[in-house]
Amino acid sequence: MQITIIGTGYVGIVAAVCLAKLGHNVTAMDRESVIQSLQSNKAHVWEPGLQELLTECNEEGNLHFDADMASATANADALLIAVGTPTRADGHTDLSQIENVLEQLKQSGNCPPLVIVKSTVPVGTCDELEANLHGAGLRADVVFNPEFLRQGSAINDFMYPDRIVFGCQSRHSEIMLRQIYQGIDAPIQVCDRRSAELIKYASNTFLAMKISFANMMADLCEGYGADIRQVMKGVGTDRRIGPHFLQAGVGYGGSCFSKDLQSLLTSGKVIGRSLPLLEATAQINDQRIPQLVVKLISLWENPNGKRLGVLGISFKPNTNDVRDAPFLTLLKLCQHHRIDVHAYDPVVQQVAFEGVTVADSPYEMAAHSDAIILMTEWPQFVELDWVRMVQLMRQSILLDGRNVLSDEVVAQLMELDGVTYVPVGRPVEQSVEQRVY
Ligand SMILES: NC(=O)c1ccc[n+]([C@@H]2O[C@H](COP(=O)([O-])OP(=O)(O)OC[C@H]3O[C@@H](n4cnc5c(N)ncnc54)[C@H](O)[C@@H]3O)[C@@H](O)[C@H]2O)c1
């Protein structure tokens, strides 16, 4: 099938290479600068396996790039929209990128018979888009096909999803969608568009809620002297609950959870429904970094001029995405307290914001620091020579914001003079696991 994809960000480019890999003839469209990079076989976002698959598709010749709507959509059977849907300052979803796509489509006069919305959009948006296209004389079926991929494992998630959801109103569009996903072995749920739009929001906000729940329990563990790792292990082994998204830490970040939660809260207000569970989820998350900074400052006499090493800039491992990263909130608070921030990230080597020195190695970052916070659980951070790290520091204070250092490493560190290890949701003295037989 001829498929045109509009927007080649984290979702669009992954959909493009995966659909091309499935045998479709794909044209991906974005801004000129992005298209130039992709045409020269350079992935502009960092995602494991993406560059390799891009090269493979370029060699096969069934993936093309175009910055012009008219030529990108000529002869297309389906158009897939994967542009951004950020939150506006008033809490509503900013649909301007989608509206621009619609305008470009109308101007081009080419509208494929099937328009697949993959961008996350408020309930009712697809109904409006279809009415808008029909009003302009473009006879296209608009379907909502939510994307559930996780950055960091996006290609695997696209090719091996837990489920695929089609929010469509006609048998014909369902048949076309089934053809597009032929080759992917996953249960398919077909439902109306509005339910599909809500499935995406409900999924993301539920995951955010699990994280905030674990963080709320972590605070309780600190008060009671219990170990959050053990508590969540005991909770998560219940198959009705499951072990995922129950790791306590610095809270969730990234471009989706906060945005989608905010969007749903605002949508609820529009129809007069309050969503207190989601309000609490956001509140708990918003407190994670301020609480961490209070802990940090309590370990120093005066934060002014202290040097903090931060391990991890991206919002999660295996991505270079810094959108809504907890690191950014930490940076802002550190600047407020005049703390000098040095950071290291395996992939993010440069940052577009001021007030941070990005180090070339974790050891360079650790040197002369008065504390280190581990913000992102990159696997390579666990493998560092932690004895060397603390020996390079001016003051050996280590806040493990993701609870990832092994008990063995922590025990080794505790044998050294003057090391303070602060995990999440466990009293410090219990950071080395104490079993009671
Ligand atoms: N990132 C994720 O993990 C993820 C997962 C599931 C769903 N989503 C949803 O998917 C959508 C896209 O997310 P993303 O992270 O890929 O966003 P992104 O910001 O990384 O990418 C959007 C891309 O669209 C391009 N674009 C905007 N307007 C355009 C136009 N008129 N013509 C051509 N290109 C245009 C931008 O240049 C950009 O490259 C969002 O609605 C998001 O909520 C994201």
From TrEMBL:
Pathway: Nucleotide-sugar biosynthesis; UDP-alpha-D-glucuronate biosynthesis; UDP-alpha-D-glucuronate from UDP-alpha-D-glucose: step 1/1. Its EC number is 1.1.1.22. NAD(+) binds at residues 30, 85, 120, 259, 323. Substrate binds at residues 200, 245-249, 253, 316, 417. It is an enzyme of class 1 (oxidoreductase). It comes from the Bacteria. The keyword Oxidoreductase applies. It catalyses: UDP-alpha-D-glucose + 2 NAD(+) + H2O = UDP-alpha-D-glucuronate + 2 NADH + 3 H(+). One of its GO terms (molecular function) is NAD binding. Keywords: NAD, Oxidoreductase. Residues 309-407 form the UDP-glucose/GDP-mannose dehydrogenase C-terminal domain. SMART domains: UDPG_MGDP_dh_C. Pfam families: UDPG_MGDP_dh (PF00984), UDPG_MGDP_dh_C (PF03720), UDPG_MGDP_dh_N (PF03721). The active site is at 256 (nucleophile). GO terms for biological process: polysaccharide biosynthetic process; UDP-glucuronate biosynthetic process. Belongs to the UDP-glucose/GDP-mannose dehydrogenase family. This is UDP-glucose 6-dehydrogenase. It comes from Paenibacillus pectinilyticus. The lineage of its organism: Bacteria, Bacillati, Bacillota, Bacilli, Bacillales.
